[in-house]
Design a protein that fits this description.
The chain is α/β, with parallel strands linked by helices and 293 residues long. It contains nine helices and twelve strands. The strands form three sheets. Strands 4-3-2-11-6-7-8-10 form an eight-stranded mixed sheet, with helices on both faces. Strands 1-12 form a two-stranded antiparallel ribbon. Strands 5-9 form a two-stranded parallel ribbon.
């Protein structure tokens, strides 16, 4: 009801020409007056800024004021990627072993399981906890023949039929688990299909001098087995068995005739950290006078 009455009351004014002229003059006067007030206020504000004391202009901004100050550069946080590394304690290890161990820890390739690295070149085994902490290292006896591939179907053949050139310890990543062999001896199965396992050193043939081979400082006489990984009995009991009891694990057998990154798709953790860092967003340009909200 109120709206309708206002509309009816204004209609006669619109119909009168001279009243319309008066209304137009009043409206223009109001507009000029508002512009004058705005211009005067702007001049006064500029004069105040020019006359403001230097100490007032240069005083530190409060947290509330700083959030509304225009900025010509808005910095995106640069997140540094820190590489994760295996903990070798004081144990000596080759560059290839450290490369693979660091990659395993940094990438999580072991899937939170214990893991072991077999270095065929140096004839040594390194056993790690799931978090990459070294549990122990020891010398090892390996397959007689050099090479990184197993002969197809060799795991189903009797030992007497395996020729010397076929007695390799294959390279690769293997899911391993504790079990017992046909004689009831506990072993760590590495490659079940290839009949490759890690077990305490076998001394059934004294002429092979396996204990003496393990004790020498050189790896040159450590190639003697059919392919299995022989380790000292004490090392198996105190390191291998506790590490893999109640859980599967990963065994990485390093290659000796192929490149490491071809076998494991590994990477250098330092180079990867650098790539991760430089791939972060660069500082974002913000238009001058813009206010961050």
């Amino acid at each position: 009801m109120t709206t309708k009455r206002k509309r009816i009351g204004l209609r006669p004014l619109i119909m009168m020409p001279h009243l319309r002229s008066v209304a137009a003059i009043i409206a223009k006067g109001l507009c000029f007056g508002l512009l004058a007030v705005s211009f005067t206020s702007h001049q006064a504000s500029a004069a105040d800024d020019a006359a403001a004391p230097l100490s007032t202009l240069s005083r530190p901004l409060s947290a509330h004021e700083g959030s509304a100050v225009p900025s010509t550069m808005e910095m995106q946080p640069l997140m540094l990627h820190r590489p994760q590394r295996a903990n070798f304690e004081q144990e000596h290890a080759s560059r290839k072993v450290r490369h693979v161990a660091d990659w395993v820890v940094d990438s999580g390739d072991n899937r939170s399981m214990p893991f072991a690295i077999v270095d065929k070149t140096d004839a040594r085994v390194f056993v790690f906890a799931a978090d990459g902490r070294l549990r122990g290292a020891a010398p090892a006896l390996l397959g007689l023949a050099l090479g990184d591939d197993a002969v197809p179907g060799i795991g189903d053949r009797p030992l007497s039929t395996i020729r010397p050139q076929e007695r390799t310890t294959p390279a690769g990543r293997f899911v391993a688990a504790l079990d017992r062999n046909l004689r009831g001896k506990e072993i760590l199965w590495v490659d079940y299909d290839g009949a490759i396992s890690m077990h305490p050193v076998i001394t059934a043939k004294p002429e092979e001098r396996r204990l003496q081979r393990l004790a020498t400082a050189t790896p040159l006489d450590n190639r003697i087995s059919y392919g299995c990984i022989n380790v000292p009995a004490e090392f198996f009991e105190k390191v291998v068995r506790p590490a893999f009891t109640g859980t599967d694990g990963i065994v990485y057998v390093l290659p000796e005739t192929r490149l490491t990154h071809e076998v494991f798709a590994s990477y250098d953790v330092e180079e990867n950290a650098h790539r991760q860092t430089v791939s972060q967003p660069l500082p974002a340009q913000v238009a001058s006078g813009a206010v961050r909200h």
